[in-house]
Amino acid sequence: MIELKFPDGQVRDYPPGVTGREVAASLSKSLEKKALLVKLDGELLDLGRPLERGGAVQIVTRDSPEALEVIRHDTAHVLAEAVQELFPGTQVTIGPNVEDGFYYDFARDEPFSLDDLALIEARMRHIVDRDEPITREVWDRGEAIAHFEGIGEIYKAQIIRDIPGEEAITVYRQGGWKDLCRGPHLPSTRHVGKAFKLTKLAGAYWRGDQNNAQLQRIYGTAWASDADLAEHLKRIEEAERRDHRKIGRAMDLFHIQEEGRGMPFWHPKGWTLYRTLENYVRRRTEAAGYVEVATPQILDVSLWERSGHWAKFHDSMFVSETAEGEVLAVKPMNCPCHVEIFRQGQKSYRDLPIRMMEFGGLHRYESSGSLLGLLRVRRMVQDDAHIFCTEAQIEPESTAFIRLLQQIYADLEVELHSVKLALRPDQRFGSDEQWTIAEDTLERAANAAGVEVERIPGEGAFYGPKLEFHLRDAIGRTWQCGTLQLDYVLPERLDAAYIGEDGQKHRPVMLHRAIVGSLERFLGVLIEHHAGAFPLWLAPVQAVVATITSEGDDYAGQVAARLRRAGLRVEADLRNEKVGYKVREHSLAKVPVIAVVGRREAEEGKVALRRLGSDRQQVLPLDEAVAMLTAEATPPDLR
RNA sequence: GCCGCCUUAGCUCAGCCGGUAGAGCGGCGCAUUCGUAAUGCGUAGGUCGGGUGUUCGAGUCACCCAGGCGGCACCA
Known about the structure:
Threonyl-tRNA Synthetase, Chain A, domain 2, BirA Bifunctional Protein, domain 2, 5-stranded mixed β-sheet, RNA-binding
């Protein structure tokens, strides 16, 4: 007998080989009906899988998060079956889950069309209705390869070849259709349900390598219930309305045109926002002990050759040749320039750390397909700084940096999505010991600032590991904004040195760091995060003074002048329009405060304030309103 | 760069099977002075991303190019 322990603490004996289904049935008829999977000691198994040993057992039903993952994965299988029924000759490859859904990559010469998606969805529903039992089989490796090659599934055969020798090869039979899969799966296709939708069509490379064949990826979303699906679709729709490109146009912040792909034109309001952010970051950074510098936009290629960037990145640099035959490269990053400033004169260990900051305008020739609004551009300004320090200063400087970043993100009310630690890449400089120390130092520094990091192998820069601070856009894509990178290489290549306590020359360590990253990208995220409704201190237009009739014009002018003198960005709306119309218009333009003045306010020396998103009014004496708004419009670091 | 889709007035979008373009908002003009998310009337805007082809005739079909979007790849 094997001993199974249930979540409620109950322990029961069962014969070895009992299935999850039988266990569920032994508890209650209704549980047997609802059961989808069984969990044994944390491992999720098919309901029909014989249990050979005892342990903590749990019957998993539709409403559990684990079941949802399996539902999504099974929906991908149903998708694959439907595609192969409809389009014979199409090869299947892989179909993993992603956030909120799944995808499946197919190899087929002819591309799928959007119309095909509807067709495929209909067939998927049909397969769900057919209620095909899903069963697990363990196959011999050689037979499995022969089978999949025999039916022309070369990708599946390839996958089997790459499965480590000790692992079992499992094939799931779904009606008459078979797929190689680790599982687990639902008992039958009926349980997949119909709360799914195919959402997008895309190209994707086999094994993520652009040298390989391009496959066709179909994305879908799947949920445990129709209500969940509907809610998800609604969320997506709402998120799309927060798209910074739409809001940017509606608020007249910026535009991008064909002749300057990836190079935003900032309009007056957008530029006000931009400068407000820039000045805020500048103050916080200076207060943290940085010095600001400015360096050339375009430099002789020899500097980039010395730094090593020319060899590695010249394909993504803008280059110009002069009439005299010099080759100049537009700077893609500031690091070498900062090293050159460091190298001027002689530096002592007493000077370190030197924290050198620049709002550096950069140009990078990013691939055409990667450009995206403000989030991926070819022209950007980074809040770029380099900290030249000693080995011993790396950790405290790193921790201080992360604290500064946390402070700034908190002030801007954005939420950090994740922090990644990009570890040594295959091609790199430096010894393994050096890398181990560098990686561990960054992680310790992060932990000291209360940040948990996610280690990602192979993603580091060639000169050192990096911490990446990721934010999310409206539809959930993540974007690296802040970064902290450890670099032993560039000081060496560009011969940066300081005189140590011992009177000898030493190499400083260089920390590359940015908090908002590129102002363009950060503003893109910020616009989406706030849906254009910025906190008062950031809003490009902070208040509009709106009259009700022309009799309020004089007083409105005085109110606007008072607010402007107090430093607020204010517009007066004296147009001959109904006040309701003005309120609507400025609300749509996301102006945080509308100050309505009519005869009453004029007579009493007051203003009626209306906040964006609220329909209540606050009637205040002008002095009080000015004091209140001024306080609120003060950037967080100046309060 | 690769795959797919899209590209019509300032904006958002409609234009079926090919017969030389419509709406709403916005703009402009006039009237209206009206207390918190759209006052009424009038009026001007486009040759349909660019090009080539098919056709008696193309926004509508085909092809090429460009840009945008969703992915993939890339991201110092």
